[in-house]
Amino acid sequence: xxxxxxxxxxxxxxxxxxxxxxxxxxxxxxxxxxxxxxxxxxxxxxxxxxxxxxxxxxxxxxxxxxxxxxxxxxxxxxxxxxxxxxxxxxxxxxxxxxxxxxxxxxxxxxxxxxxxxxxxxxxxxxxxxxxxxxxxxxxxxxxxxxxxxxxxxxxxxxxxxxxxxxxxxxxxxxxxxxxxxxxxxxxxxxxxxxxxxxxxxxxxxxxxxxxxxxxxxxxxxxxxxxxxxxxxxxxxxxxxxxxxxxxxxxxxxxxxxxxxxxxxxxxxxxxxxxxxxxxxxxxxxxxxxxxxxxxxxxxxxxxxxxx
Length: 307
Description:
By secondary structure, the protein is an alpha+beta fold. The chain has helices at 3-23, 34-47, 52-65, 71-82, 93-106, 132-136, 140-143, 179-183, 186-192, 196-210, 239-248, 250-288, 290-297, and strands spanning 26-33, 110-118, 121-128, 147-156, 162-172, 223-227, 230-238. A hairpin with a 5-residue loop joins strand 4 and strand 5.
């Protein structure tokens, strides 16, 4: 087998290794406003076999048990029953927190959540399980074209090859206008994931948006950044371009991001080879003519021995 064929085979093998690492370590987070979250809750309960009436009774029971009185919930459920326009839940964080806690206790919706205020309005951010794909289908949230940001983190080993990493995908409500504030909320992301890798990923996301790097599975370029032993690749898009693949085909997302990480990894190796070559050249120059080397180093004219 030729040298070129060996190199190609080796690169393909590395690509599959990186893809496998990322595929098995993916995290999906969702940001929803109060009404979107309640709509999501109704859909989850429907998938669990509850009717609309039973779901309303379920929430009523929870509120009674917790001794919570919510005027906004009373207005909201009346709108649900009559099919009229839903009443915005406003700032009722207690209601949202109570419902979210019960859903978390159910064990099949999300493992972690936070209720955060952005621009004076409550938002629910949660980390979904694998079943999130099914739970989001058929919701108004999904049909409203939410935005999607995915970033992949690769961790370089001693041989400057990627030894580990993860993919983090954030799905953001189309009506959400505090994206930068959300990204800069390090306390939230460190609670969900933790570590400097998340900081690098978030910085890469911000850079990707600043560079206008909108990538799709059809074409486009992903934003990339390398900081020390950590590499990050960012994909930014909307429901019309990448959301379907994100939710329905995790292999496609892993491949798309691993392609980028492999490219960065290869670039780092090539730069290291160039540095080694330049180092050897300088050493040869010094060995051949130490005095002349020092003259040239400091820009002093030298008419002695040449190399």
